Amino acid sequence: MSSGDGGGQGFAVVTVDDDVGRGLFATRTFSSGETILTETPVVSCQHAWNASYGYSACHLCLAPLETAEQNARRLSDNPGILLPNSECCQTRPNFHVECESCPVKYCSDQCRREAWDRFHKTLCYGGCVASRSKRF
User: Fold this and answer.
1) What is the largest distance, in Å, between two alpha-carbon atoms of the chain?
2) Is residue 89 situated within a structural domain?
3) Are residues 23 and 52 in the same domain?
4) Are 24 and 55 found together in one domain?
5) Average pLDDT, the chain
6) Is 38 among the domain residues?
7) How high is the pLDDT of residue 129?
8) Which of the four, 9, 76, 94, 113, has the lowest number of CB atoms within 10 Å?
9) Which helix or strand (DSSP H or E) is residue 68 part of?
10) pLDDT score for 90
11) What pTM did the predictor assign?
12) Domain-embedded: residue 36
């Protein structure tokens, strides 16, 4: 077995053997609800079902742009639905932004800029070609 310390974050990446490969193992006790690891996916996309039902998520990180309660109200067409513990599912609507050339939405300007630099300037389906060279 070989390992790395996970940058002192309370976990180690351990190579178990050639058959099992590597795994992430805790090196300390974590509290309930504590974030252990956050990483950006190499590739991600919403399920077609989500898109067809209008689920609103950040085009880069897939963070929800509507709360579970807002989602339930929209899907049921019932504005009176109240979900328990709705305070546990908050979004930050004051930070939400759209691409300047198409209706793609992001949870923050940081996600919009990162998406533009990584792929959206090539894949953006709105505006003219000249706008794709523009930097945010």
Assistant:
1) 56
2) yes
3) no
4) no
5) 85
6) no
7) 45
8) 94
9) helix 68-76
10) 86
11) 0.65
12) no
